[in-house]
Design a protein that fits this description.
heterodimer; A: alpha/beta; D-Maltodextrin-Binding Protein, domain 2; five-stranded mixed β-sheet; 19 helices; 19 strands; 43% helix; 13% strand; B: alpha+beta; OB fold (Dihydrolipoamide Acetyltransferase, E2P); 3 domains; six-stranded antiparallel β-sheet; five-stranded mixed beta barrel; 6 helices; elongated
Chain lengths: 540, 291
């Protein structure tokens, strides 16, 4: 009888364990990585690198050159590049390939995305050990090229690649958002352009610019089209506005603090200016740069990595040269602030992660290639393609890069003034940048933040009523659309935890089984006690 | 109505029960009757007959009421159909509607891009004009039914992207329903003569063809196969932009390879949907290389 009880308990425990393990497991099942004693340079290794370029041929050329340079140092390694122009597509493809076990070796990515990749066990390589490895770590003794050492990285940028307590990526490039201003129009409207603009200033000037002539054209530009303020990335807009106000939109634990009165207050303010059409977004109107360059926009907020598209003399342009307003001056400022004494702006830009594989030599080759992307030969030229900042102090402090920074305005190509102004804006404000917490699903919360602004803006343009009833429905729709209530963390609605609904069936079964186990254990202990009692009685 | 139906059923059931009981009693009577038995049998017969009469009467009444309801429903459906048709815009009305206004149209699917995350972008047309339904809200199951020629009724907001000289379309999130009845597959309209004229925009979103165009440039979106292909063709010195949308025709290997391998100077006939991005930017659906 006793053995039957034991067997029963063992069986139930084994069942529960298998349930727990299968619940934790992703599709892939790759063993953990151990750093090989030696990199085998006699073995032919092929790795794939999924890269993102900003539809910029120079960036493609730099990646190609990086591969050639790396393959020269390690002739036994062949790097195959696949180019993307969209981070979202990389993300989708990685997710698809995790399930089939065909992830790339090295991938340009965002920490938000890595958090999702981590749902597959051992899929993304933890870099905690290898980064400090004496031989193959950053700038290690057996690394064949001039890689930066750990203390030559910008510490803040390296810190951004930690998810929880582990390092899962290396930073590749960094940027922030900048406000590109048609200074000519601001002054024509009777305002003096401050060094740091407030949101109130931007709204006020934008509304002032909406005045029209009798023929329906706008007074400020004499054209039929004017959108005074266009924001490219509305998720960043909401996140930065909240941060500047002192509100977080998520917590490190993954709690969502977005759907509350703080957000609502900002949405009401934005809706006022969407209603007058003084404000619009990229998704609704198109690229801010196109409108700025055509003299149809006064304030455009876009990445510093988009600075080569800004201004009438920009080296890159998406509009016909006849449509460019030649008589305007475009300047770069920080994004608008609520507190000009304490500016706050987002840190963004690509990072690089490595996917684990069964062959440690293949993983080591991937790591070495990733290090190569941090060499000055890659960091400096790539940063120069846009308003990016290198992520290593080694590159930032190099004579070559310092010389580059000092030559803003010498031409409208490599030394394009707006690009260099945008770059310097970030270099001067690295300590004022922030990142948002990363967790599985944080990418969805970010999207949801932007969609709130998009919906409100669209609704105002469609003459719909935006009131508390509307906001309530909007929150519900967005939570549902982005499955925010399925992230496993709490969703704040006006400071009160939202009802997350019933537990999933699997969870309920698990709880029932755990409860049953405890009952069986207690019953078993009782049985033993009773039996011992009976034996004692018989003995006596 | 429900109450009456239940009453009828109960009455019917009672009648059946009683009839069943009555049957047994009759048999008993035949085997050896008494006067009390006759009285009981008579009472049972009366009860059965009454119940059957009531049941028949209730059934007739119910049938009349059902008939009335059916008539009402039919009338309602006709009224609703009239109301829907009244709300549906002709292409002319749609074209005249303001940007950001709500519209309802009926159109015929000509093609669609890949379904993804409950959205699908559809190229649609009727005999008057073309429509582009951007990221139409659609289940995967329904997307499979959006075959060429299928008639659908779509409600959403008219928009233009980019806001200046852009593609006129139904904004993301428009909803649709299938409409039974006829189908329509558009024939491509030859718009070669309109290249470089202001009239070309009137064919926006329609299935069109361009004849004897000269290849000026070809490039992959990402610099290599696997994504959109951008093609510049010209007619008498005027360039027209084309794109092989990967999500529309990327799976057609022959077409993808033919377009990807085009070389400057070649002459081609090309068909596609006249998408608009700051000017014509047709999405290629077919190409014929002449030399």
């Amino acid at each position: 009888m006793r053995s039957i009880w034991r067997k029963l308990i063992c069986l139930v425990c084994a069942g529960v364990m298998s349930l727990l393990l299968s619940a934790c497991h992703g599709a892939g099942n790759i063993k953990g990585f151990s750093i090989p004693e030696q990199f085998d340079t006699s073995k032919h290794i092929e790795i794939t690198f999924w890269a993102k370029n900003d539809t910029n041929k120079t960036q493609v050329a730099i990646y190609d050159s990086a591969v050639a340079g790396f393959e020269k140092e390690y002739p036994n390694v062949k790097v195959n590049i696949r180019y993307y122009t969209d981070y979202g597509k990389i993300y989708n493809d990685v997710i698809t390939n995790i399930s089939t076990g065909t992830t790339p070796n090295v991938c340009i990515t965002y920490p938000d995305h890595i958090a999702t990749y981590l749902t597959g066990q051992n899929q993304v390589l933890e870099l905690d050990d290898i980064i400090d490895d004496e031989k193959y770590g950053l700038g290690g003794s057996d690394v064949k090229f001039d890689a930066p050492k750990r203390d030559e990285m910008v510490e803040k940028y390296l810190d951004e690649c930690y998810i929880g307590d582990h390092l899962y990526a290396l930073p590749y490039m960094r940027s922030t958002e900048a406000l590109y201003v048609n200074k000519t129009f601001v002054e024509k409207l009777g305002y003096e352009l401050p060094d740091v603009l407030t949101w109130d200033f931007v709204w006020e000037v934008s509304e002032a610019a909406m005045e029209k002539n009798e023929d329906g054209t706008f007074k400020i530009n004499g054209q039929n089209v004017l959108i005074p303020f266009i924001y490219k990335s509305t998720d960043n807009m909401m996140i930065q506005m909240l941060k500047q106000k002192g509100y977080d939109f998520t917590t490190d634990a993954g709690d969502v603090l977005l759907f509350n009165d703080n957000t609502k207050g900002l949405l009401y303010e934005i809706s006022k200016h969407a209603g007058t059409r003084a404000f619009s977004t990229f998704k609704i109107s198109s690229y801010p740069g196109n409108f700025i360059n055509a003299g149809q926009c006064i304030f455009g907020i876009d990445s510093t990595a988009g600075s080569t598209w800004m201004g009438p003399d920009a080296p890159l342009s998406d509009i016909h040269k006849d449509d460019v307003a030649k008589d305007i001056e475009v300047v770069v400022r920080q994004i608008p602030q609520f507190d000009t004494e304490n500016p706050i702006m987002i840190s963004q830009g690509p990072s690089v992660c490595i996917f684990n594989k069964d062959d440690p030599q293949e993983v080591l080759a991937s790591w070495l290639f990733t290090q190569y992307l941090l060499t000055n030969d890659v960091q400096i030229p790539y940063a120069q393609t846009e308003g990016y900042v290198p992520v290593t102090l080694k590159a930032q402090n190099s004579a070559e890069y310092q010389d580059y920074l000092s030559r803003g305005g010498e031409d409208n190509d490599l030394y394009y003034s707006i690009k260099l102004d945008a770059t310097n804006l970030l270099l001067d404000n690295i300590d004022n940048t922030f990142i948002t917490p990363v967790f599985n699903g944080s990418a969805s919360v970010r999207d949801a933040a932007g969609q709130l602004i998009e919906n409100v803006t669209n609704s105002m343009r469609r003459k719909q009523t935006v009131d508390d009833e509307y906001m309530k429905k909007l929150y519900g729709d967005i939570i549902s659309l982005y499955r925010i209530d399925q992230l496993g963390a709490s969703v704040s609605g006006g400071g009160k935890a939202a009802d997350l609904g019933p537990l999933p069936l699997g969870s309920r079964l698990l709880i029932i089984i755990l409860g049953a186990i405890w009952l069986l254990i207690i019953a078993y202990l009782c049985y033993i006690k009773i039996r011992e009692g009976i034996k004692r009685n018989q003995h006596n | 109505m429900k109450k009456k139906l239940v009453s009828v059923i109960l009455a019917g059931a009672m009648a059946l029960c009683l009839a069943g009981c009555g049957g047994n009693t009759t048999t008993d009577t035949e085997n050896g009757s008494s006067s009390l038995g006759d009285l009981v049998n008579s009472a049972i017969d009366d009860a059965v007959n009454n119940a059957v009469d009531e049941a028949n009467s209730a059934l007739n009444e119910a049938a009349d009421q059902v008939s009335d309801v059916v008539d009402d429903v039919n009338a309602g459906l006709e009224e609703a159909a009239d109301a829907v048709s009244e709300g549906v815009m002709s292409y002319e009305e749609y074209a005249a509607a303001d940007i950001d206004s709500e519209v309802t149209i009926e159109c015929y699917v000509q093609a669609h891009q890949s379904w993804w995350d409950n959205k699908v972008s559809v190229y649609a047309q009727d005999e008057e004009g073309g429509y582009f339904l951007y990221n139409l809200a659609c289940s995967e199951e329904d997307a499979a039914k959006l075959t060429e020629g299928t008639k659908i009724r779509v409600t959403g907001y008219k928009t233009m992207w980019p806001e200046v000289n852009g593609e006129v379309e139904l904004a993301e999130g428009a909803t649709f329903e299938f409409v039974d009845g006829d189908t329509f597959v558009a024939e491509p309209k030859d718009v070669t003569e309109l290249v470089g004229t202001d009239d070309l925009v009137n064919y926006m979103n329609q299935k069109v063809s361009f004849k004897d165009m000269t290849v000026e440039a070809v490039s992959y979106k990402n610099g290599e196969p696997g994504d959109d292909i951008y093609v510049t063709l010209s007619k008498d010195g005027t360039n027209v932009e084309f794109c092989l949308e990967y999500y529309l025709n990327g799976s057609d290997e022959d077409l993808y390879n033919t377009v990807g391998n085009l070389e400057a100077g070649q002459t081609v006939d090309v068909e596609g949907f006249l998408y608009w991005y700051e000017g014509p930017d047709a999405h290629i659906t077919g190409i014929g290389v002449k030399n």
